[in-house]
Design brief:
Length: 330
C-alpha cells in the first residue's frame, strides 16, 4: 500500500470539473495516496456561559445581598472558558467589583483592595481613578518587565489580555489571559502565570500533519508558501486557477516544490448541461484550508481591542460566518 499524503486545499473546489480523481492520480504518480488530515475543533463561543458571566457581574455591580458569592462562580467560569475573547476584561471587572466591596468593608487602603487592584491592573492596565482616589503611586509601582517567548511559531500571533504581544512587550508579572492565533484562527487559549522575569513557553498545539499544522499556507506564483514551523514530514497542496487548471505541489515541513499544473477542461464533445452540473461531493480526504476561515475570531479580537466590550450592549448581536465554520456569535 502506498504511504499516506495529506492534501491541503487553498480554496474550496468549485465548478463542474471534478479535481479529486486528478489529485488521486497525481499522488499515485509520486508514490502516495491521499488521506484525511486530523481535524482540530475550532474554539467555540458558548452564549449560555457568556450570559451567566454577564448576569453575575451585573449582580455584583448592584451590590445585591449575597453578591459576594458571585466572585467564586465567576472564577470557575473564566478559568474553564479561556477561549472567550473578552475573558481578561471580565476578570479585571470582577477584581474591580470585589475591590469596591473590600474598600467598603476595610477602608480604601486595605491590603485586600490593593491586591485586587493590582490583579485588575495587570490584566487591563491602569484604570481612571474613582472620585477621591489617588492611584498614581500604585500605578507607578507596577513592575512592567519585558516578556520572553519560547517556542512560538514565527508567524503565530499572541494576544495577552486582549492586546497583541511579542518578545520584549512590557508586562506585569502575575496572572494573564493568553490567546494564540495562526492566520486569524485561534489555535490555543489559556490562563498563564508570569513570573519575574515574565517568560511564556507556548508549546505548539498542532498535531503533525493536522489541518491546524498546515494552517496559514498561502498561494505563491512559483509554488505554495507554508507558514514557518510546519511539523508534517510530507504533504501536498492543491489549488484551482480559474476553475479549469489544477495546481499541485509536494511539501516537506515548511518547504514546497514548484506548482505542477494539470488541466481540468472537459472534452470538446461534452454537452453544456454537463458543464453546468454541480461539483461532486468532497471525498473524505479533502482538507480545506480556504483563505478567510477564522475571520470571525479575528474580527472579534479587533472589536475587543478597540473597546467594544468596555460597555454593555445586550440588545446588539453580531454574527460572523466563515465559509466552512459555524456561526460565531457574541
Amino acid at each position: 500500500m502506498l504511504p499516506p499524503l495529506v492534501v491541503f486545499w487553498l480554496a474550496a473546489p468549485t465548478g463542474a470539473a471534478d479535481p479529486h480523481g486528478e489529485i488521486e492520480r497525481w499522488a499515485a504518480d509520486h508514490g502516495y495516496r491521499p488521506v484525511p488530515a486530523l481535524q482540530v475543533a475550532a474554539a467555540g463561543y458558548d452564549e449560555a456561559v457568556v450570559h451567566e458571566i454577564e448576569a453575575l457581574l451585573e449582580e455584583a455591580r448592584s451590590l445585591a445581598p449575597g453578591s459576594s458569592g458571585n466572585f467564586e462562580r465567576l472564577d470557575q467560569l473564566l478559568a474553564a472558558h479561556p477561549e472567550l475573547p473578552q475573558a481578561a476584561w471580565w476578570a479585571a471587572e470582577r477584581y474591580a467589583l470585589e475591590g469596591q466591596q473590600a474598600a467598603r468593608e476595610g477602608g480604601r487602603d486595605s491590603a485586600a483592595q490593593r491586591d485586587l487592584a493590582a490583579r485588575g491592573s495587570a490584566l487591563e492596565g491602569p484604570r481612571s481613578p474613582v472620585a477621591g482616589e489617588d492611584s498614581t503611586a500604585r500605578e507607578d509601582s507596577l513592575p512592567y518587565l519585558p516578556l520572553q517567548l519560547i517556542d512560538l511559531r514565527p508567524r503565530d500571533e499572541l494576544l495577552l489580555d486582549g492586546q497583541r504581544a511579542g518578545a520584549g512587550t512590557r508586562v506585569v508579572p502575575g496572572r494573564h489571559h493568553a490567546q494564540l492565533f495562526r492566520a486569524q484562527r485561534q489555535v490555543w487559549s489559556g490562563w498563564v502565570e508570569l513570573g519575574s522575569p515574565p517568560v511564556l513557553h507556548v508549546a505548539d498545539p498542532s498535531p503533525a500533519c493536522s489541518e491546524l499544522d498546515l494552517w496559514g499556507t498561502e498561494p505563491g506564483a512559483q509554488g505554495p508558501a507554508p507558514a514557518p514551523g510546519v511539523r508534517c514530514g510530507a504533504w501536498g497542496v492543491a489549488n484551482l486557477r480559474g476553475g479549469s487548471e489544477l495546481e499541485l505541489a509536494l511539501c516537506q515541513g515548511s518547504r514546497c516544490s514548484a506548482w505542477e499544473r494539470r488541466s481540468l477542461l472537459l472534452g470538446a464533445g461534452s454537452a453544456p448541461a454537463e458543464a453546468a452540473a454541480p461539483p461532486a461531493p468532497l471525498p473524505a480526504w479533502v482538507t480545506w484550508g480556504a483563505i478567510g476561515l477564522g475571520a470571525a475570531a479575528s474580527t472579534a479580537l479587533v472589536l475587543w481591542q478597540t473597546g467594544v466590550f468596555d460597555r454593555p450592549a445586550p440588545a446588539t448581536q453580531f454574527v460572523f460566518t466563515g465559509p466552512t465554520a459555524a456561526a460565531f456569535r457574541f
